[in-house]
Amino acid sequence: MSVEAKQETLGFQAEVQQLLDLMIHSLYSNKEIFLRELISNASDAADKLRFAALQDDSLYEGDSDLKIRVEYDKKHHTLSVIDNGIGMTRSEVVGNLGTIAKSGTKQFFESLTGDQGKDAKLIGQFGVGFYSVFIVADKVEVQTRRAGAPRGEGVQWVSEGKGEFTVKTIDRPKRGTRVTLYLRKDEKEFLNGQRLRGIIKHYSDHISLPIVMDAEGKDAKGEETVNSATALWIRDKKDINEEEYHEFYKHVAHDFDPPLSYSHNKVEGKLEYISLLFIPSRAPFDLWDRQQRHGIKLYVKRVFIMDDAEQLIPSYLRFVRGMVDSNDLPLNVSREILQHNKTIDSIRAGNVKKILKLLQDMAKKEPEKYQKFWDEFGRVLKEGVIDDPEKQEELACLFRYASSYDDKPEQCVSLEDYVSRMQPDQKAIYYVIADTFATAKNSPHLEIFRKKGIEVLLMTDPIDEWVTNHLSEFNGKSLQSVTRGELELGELGKEDKSAASEADTEDPSIKKLSGRIKDVLDDKVKLVRATNRLTSSPACLVSDHHDMGLNLERILKASGQKVPGTAPILEINPGHPVIERLKCMDEEEVFSDWSNILFEQALLSEGGQLEDPAGFVQRLNKMFIQMGRDRNE
Ligand code: ADP
């Protein structure tokens, strides 16, 4: 006997044990889903074999009649799911059934709260898979052999779901996998043909392989097929009910929850393909990782070709799950071929069209549902403005923002809403970008807008910096940052504008003051000038039209990039008492402190960080002490 054949006992990866414990407790009320998970895995294994056999049909070992068998044994209290799919090698067994190789694992475990109710939801989102067997079984045995491997290279894996499992090499004449559950004492309900048939029909009817069980009843003989066993997507839409779509989604997306929406399309004409696309109801744990390219399952003439064919969907729609079945691609299509293929390009364009249409309809007819979508995936969708310039206007219609209109943090104002509320003389769509809602809402830059009743969009996603750079117009109206350049309110700002520019150019005391402050602040600011944008704050910082903007600078710095810092412009409010006081302040040291504080408070109020916080505190305290003295005098 070789060393390999010997029995080995191995420990589960720590996370697996944690996942198991969590699952057993939190999913008990939904325990029958283990069967769906096992059947789903068996079906994937058959898909993989069929694909591999396109290159080498000896892998069928003379048996190309792929199916899944479910059997139970009352005497031994066992339930088995058997497939003749691709099977696993010993190292695959150890890797697949001893660790979690899923992306997003780290984020998942970080997000656990210890609250069973909340964690149960998260676990559904993470996907339960094979390990769900331990909800109903106290021992599980897997026997498997990889298609094409000699019969002596079968593998047996056994575990009680308590920290460890054993593997050994066995003789296994049949390829594929048999999973046997030794059911817990109180799980007798799964030793009942009718109950099992009910579960299979309910959760796995869409599986395109036959799922068979021994016929039962008086004159029963042989096997019978329990499910419909036709690919769901080729069926007529009107013959498929919502429940069936949902179960199919759970299978393709490995999701526990039903999708938010879906679109099923049969395209005929120059190209022939079927697409079945789903929008999940929740974002997966790795959505923010742009490298993690999830795609769509690709089938060619009903044969599964590959998972995650990322060419079928652009990155900004990477949350979409589902499948495409093409009649035009060759069966031996590879990932390399997909990259430069006209058929794929057309299918991808078709998918984009369908998803955008689905979202537009949802936004119009089911705004609450759309809001749910936006909260989960809005930030990803925004990338489309950068990735797909042709779709800018269409995408922009789908965007939602918080706004000074209602000052609520929920992002539910569309650009169309904004435009419909614009004042008659208003030329631009105004926005502010900050790193938190409170900073945006309370930004001093908004003061004049509030005074004039002009709405400002309050943006807080880092990506908004890039989006607004690319989306310079909507509906013929330019998008304009309220923190950038000189404020141009046109007719709307006439009075304030002339007051400010008069103050700046005509009033020598303000000109002089600006010069003195600039001398104190030196390189920290590019310029000091009077402004009309403030009503209650003494000062604020703005960026020049072509400069990067302080918020973007901070985002880039935080992500570790080197940024050539550009000094902002300090704008002062000529009518503010603090500015008035500064004008007649002679003592240089006090003037310098006040000027610095003016700059520092402007920086703080727009969410910036002080370079020398201790210096700021000292200056403030000096000021308090001085104020106390003034009062006593
Ligand atoms: P998921 O199916 O979400 O990847 P699972 O925990 O259900 O996660 O399964 C882990 C892996 O084990 C699968 O990805 C697959 O590679 C392998 N596996 C599970 N069941 C089978 C099976 N019946 N035949 C072949 N491989 C299987």
In short:
This protein is of the alpha+beta class. It contains 22 helices and 23 strands. The protein is 39% helix and 20% strand.
Topology:
Layout: E1 8-11, H1 14-26, H2 33-55, E2 68-73, E3 78-83, H3 90-96, H4 105-111, H5 116-126, E4 137-145, E5 154-159, E6 164-170, E7 176-183, H6 193-204, E8 211-214, E9 223-225, H7 242-253, E10 261-267, E11 273-279, E12 296-300, E13 303-309, E14 321-326, H8 335-339, H9 342-365, H10 367-382, H11 384-387, H12 392-396, E15 400-403, E16 408-414, H13 415-420, E17 428-433, H14 437-441, H15 447-452, E18 456-459, H16 464-470, E19 473-474, E20 477-481, H17 494-506, H18 508-521, E21 527-530, E22 539-542, H19 550-558, E23 569-572, H20 577-583, H21 588-605, H22 613-632
Parallel strand pairs: 2-8, 12-14, 17-18, 17-20, 21-23
Antiparallel strand pairs: 1-6, 2-3, 3-7, 4-5, 4-7, 5-6, 8-9, 10-11, 11-14, 12-13, 15-16, 15-18, 19-20, 22-23
The structure holds adenosine-5'-diphosphate.
